[in-house]
Amino acid sequence: MKYFFKKIFFALLFFCFLIMPFLIFTTPIDAQDNSLDPLNNVTNKISSTNDVVVKEVIISFINIALGIAGIIAIVMAIIGTFLAITSSGRESETTEARKLLIIASVGFLIVLMSYAIEYWIIKFI
User: Fold this and answer.
1) Residue 101 lies in a domain
2) What are the pLDDT digits (tens) for 17-51?
3) DSSP letter string over 49-72?
């Protein structure tokens, strides 16, 4: 069971650091550039004013939620580190601190991946 979690952890780490940058920093290629068409610009501005406001509200809500989740993960990591330092070699407290550090690091990876996915989806909307 321990080997399974280690395998999942390294797969997530591989995904975060090697695959996600390619997904985040790529730019879509638009074969039809309508930015020079003045009528298209006017109709886009008229039809998308309400959509932009709703989109901005949803984006800001998701960013706030991910920020709070990231702060919670960092606080959990700090608490786990403090527990590991102050355990004085007691096995029960050391394992508890190790579990808390693992949970915090997985939570932080999930927050990073969800932020990257959110950024990638918003870029294409």
Assistant:
1) yes
2) 666 666 565 555 555 555 554 445 544 555 555 56
3) HHHHHHHHHHHHHHHHHHHHHHHH
